[in-house]
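Course assignment 3, question 2. Fill in each field.
Student: A.L.
Task: Predict the tertiary structure for the chain below.
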Amino acid sequence: MAEMPEGLNLNRRDALLIAAGGVAGTMMAPGAAVAQGQTMQASSDTYPLAPGWRRFKHGDAEITVILDGVRPGEGPFPTFGEDKSQDEVGALMAANALPPARFANFFQPVVLRMGDQTILVDTGMGAGGRANGLGLLNQRLGSAGINPSDVTLVVLTHLHGDHIGGLMESGAPVFANARYAVGKAEMDFWTSDEAKNGPRAENAKMVEAMVVPLANRTTLLGDGDEVVPGMVARAAFGHTPGMFAFEVTSAGQRLFLMADTFSHFVVSLQRPDWQVRFDQDKTAAAETRRRFATLLAEGNIPFLGYHLPFPGLGYVQKDGDAFRFVPETYQHLAAG
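Answer field:
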């Protein structure tokens, strides 16, 4: 059952800030108050922050979603629907009651407490994002009662900068007591001559600085490998050569951590075949979206999306030849 603050008294300002986070914002835990009153800057725009973390139970596991930050801006075209026109993408947004030329991108690492393990999945922007109001992982871990030294394992879904930026601060590991896990194919690519000398060289340089120094404490994963009991790596290739989703099973309940498979809650599911600018292999990425959307819809399995509106938790339903996203409201509360 989702944890609720005891004796929570909201004034009008607090209520409006929580409302900014949507329905799920009302199920935040006590430390969420740290984010109240803050705004996020992007060019001349501001984005009101929802409370900065959400905790819920999944079987016997405790799941905490951390909002590393929000980046509003122009879009979603051409990042999403790169092979379409602004008008076509804008029309899809308007049909879903969204602005046709503005969107917000969310960044959400996840902490799982399973048995004696405290597992962090992805690390956000880190120090490099703070000038733009991101990189809030460490601050919000503290608000959620989690110390970086508590983390026993850091799992990386893939090695894009917004997932690895929080690994190191001033050249030292942030999670000093942790071991690490990442896909072998992912590590192989980003440390290759192809990556270092091609159009993705800047990201490869970041991998060299953030991930390679941790190699002697890193386990390289293959498809189907068990990371810890109850957590299995599932190939979700396309966005990057070795991106993994992770299937978490506890007390018979399944949950998928989908990384960047579904990065926009409308486009990724309602138009899964549309091209996404940051997908390295666009054909494979589209196949991955359809494969996992079908799996999640047929099994009515909840999932977390790294870039979906906070807290990124919901379900997939089949809709003709495509799908739609159904955000979690009180399903986990009712199951508690």
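Instructor remarks: The first strand starts at residue 39 and ends at 42. The mean pLDDT is 87.
Grade: pending
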